[in-house]
Design a protein that fits this description.
The protein is α+β, with helices and mostly antiparallel strands. Among the domains are: about 20-130 and about 495-518, no CATH class; about 155-265. Helix content is about 45%, strand content about 10%. A hairpin with a 2-residue loop joins β5 (about 285-295) and β6 (about 300-305). The radius of gyration is 33 Å and the shape is flat. The relative contact order is 0.12.
């Protein structure tokens, strides 16, 4: 072969090489093909509003959204990482179909545009998975974890502290109003009533009246070292300071609301709570959210975040959201001991759901050692009439019934007292009370616990308990370890729910792909 015809020597990597269709280059088992196959029935364009005809044509939002969803599927959560992938990764190039790579700012804008509709998109993707997978919507495994907020841990505001300082401020205001009444009499103004509590509007009126008086008398306000203030200016300065402080305290209490005890100054929706990841090992409270998920057949069917630190208060809202999404309640909502309680049991019965949620003493009551502790209230005997009998064969007498402010559903609390404790030789073992021993019983709770015990100890109950620990805790393991999601990068509910929905969509897409090629 002539030397000038030696193609091997003249070849360079910069030459144009066919084919240009990236779909041919990609492996048949690539995640891109799974993503496109699963989402081909979803019209993403309906989630975006119509574009204005003015100005230059915007980049295709649907193509950018495909890149975002696919990025979360394979672990690209950063907008800058998705931007670089659209430049360098042929999978992303194939998805955006030759469009110029979007900037990370545009990617973020597209996320924000679709934020409010991501719940619907998650539902639509899940319905596509349900068409292809045998998913039992009657079984849902629920669990929660604390995820740290994107807020400094020293930006706390505590409700008790705010209330305490506000009460002290009311006392200071009362003293100033007494001083005000003494001064104002000289000028013929009406005296003010001294109260225990004040509203900012009341203090603002006093400040405005003092401003008018200062102008009327021609008093020049002085500040700085060596300057002597008049009694009226001193009163005005103090009341103005108290007005601003009272307004600040009331605003803090409004942000906190009735269902929590703290908030972060850099993320008002975040609540200070204990986290499993405690690198300081001092049980320090950090700002975060209580993230709850419901899993069926290894897929996340519902996800949400709450301000409540206790899982008990999140059980009902997560199931209500499930009902809104799928137009049904699960027959078997399975959860661990953090969710078991009178309110949740009554809620399940009212909605036709079975009781498969452990209660707090579930594991403890099964231990032989616990059963031998005859002085425990759970081990007290009852006679044929239902009266509680102490270990010394003395009867507890019913004293009165009352309602607890901590229980939401209709209920009756009953207080019993044993009147034979004074000379009883077993009193030190039985109670630490100075007087007679009393016990409080929530009427109907024992019967509910017996139903739970029967359900959880059945063959179905054992299977559901095993699957719960595998599926829902396994899902959190993948989210935290594989997807490296341990802290939010956005703030407020609008931001963190955007992240959570994208995490759930990416998780389900990846799970579907893995199941196809397992």
């Amino acid at each position: 072969m002539p030397k000038h015809l030696n193609y091997t020597e003249n070849y360079t990597t910069n030459q144009l090489v066919l084919p240009l269709d990236l779909g041919i280059i990609l492996s048949p088992k690539s995640e891109v093909h799974t993503y496109l196959e699963l989402t081909k029935g979803i019209a993403l364009e309906k989630y975006f509003g119509s574009n204005s005809n003015l100005g230059r044509l915007p980049k295709n939002r649907v193509k950018i959204m495909n890149a975002i969803l696919f990025g979360y599927m394979i672990g690209f959560r950063s907008t800058r990482a998705i931007e670089q992938a659209c430049i360098n990764d042929i999978r992303f190039m194939y998805l955006i179909e030759g469009m110029a790579s979007p900037s990370h700012t545009l990617i973020n804008n597209v996320m924000n545009e679709i934020n409010e509709k991501l719940d619907s998109l998650l539902l639509e993707i899940n319905k596509e998975i349900i068409k292809r997978e045998d998913i039992d919507l009657d079984r849902i495994y629920i669990d929660g974890t604390k995820i740290e907020a994107d807020a400094n841990k020293y930006t706390f505001k505590w409700k008790k502290s705010i209330l305490k300082h506000r009460d002290k401020l009311h006392i200071k205001i009362s003293k100033e109003i007494k001083q005000y009444n003494e001064i104002i009499q000289e000028y013929g103004y009406k005296e003010l009533i001294v109260n225990e509590k004040y509203k900012p509007l009341e203090i603002e009126k006093i400040v405005n009246r003092l401003v008018g008086l200062i102008d009327h008398l021609g008093i020049k306000l002085v500040y700085g070292k060596g300057k002597r203030k008049t009694p009226i200016q001193r009163l005005y300065d103090n009341m103005n300071e108290y007005y601003n402080k009272l307004k600040e305290y009331n605003n803090d209490l409004k942000i906190i609301g009735n269902n929590r005890n703290s908030y972060s100054k850099t993320d008002h929706d975040a609540t200070f709570m204990h986290h499993k990841e405690d690198h300081m090992r001092n049980a320090q409270l950090k700002p975060g959210y209580n993230v709850q998920i419901g899993v069926s057949n290894e897929y996340i069917m519902v996800i949400d975040a709450y301000q409540q630190r206790s899982d008990d208060r999140t059980f009902e809202p997560i199931l209500e959201k499930y009902n809104i999404m799928y137009d049904r309640y699960p027959l078997y909502p399975v959860a661990d001991a953090g969710y078991g309680g009178y309110d949740n049991y009554r809620y399940c019965e009212s909605k036709g759901m079975k009781l498969f949620q452990k209660y707090k003493m579930w594991s403890k009551e099964k231990e032989p050692k616990f059963k031998k502790q005859i002085y425990k209230q759970a081990n007290l005997r009852q006679d044929k009439s239902g009266n509680y009998i102490c270990p010394n064969n003395k009867k507890f007498i019913k004293q009165h019934e009352y309602q607890s402010k901590y229980i939401r559903h209709e209920h009756t609390m009953i207080l019993y007292e044993c009147f034979h404790c004074e000379r009883c030789r077993q009193k030190k073992k039985c109670t630490t009370a100075k007087g007679n021993r009393t016990i409080t019983v929530l009427k109907g709770l024992k019967e509910l616990k017996q139903k739970v015990q029967k359900n959880l100890n059945s063959e179905l109950g054992i299977e559901l308990r095993v699957q719960r620990s595998i599926q829902v805790e396994g899902a959190f393991g993948i989210i935290k370890e594989d997807m490296k999601f341990r802290r939010f990068t956005r703030t407020m509910f609008s931001g963190i729910k955007l992240e959570l929905n994208l995490i759930a969509i990416g998780f389900n897409l990846k799970k579907f792909h893995n199941k196809q090629y397992r």
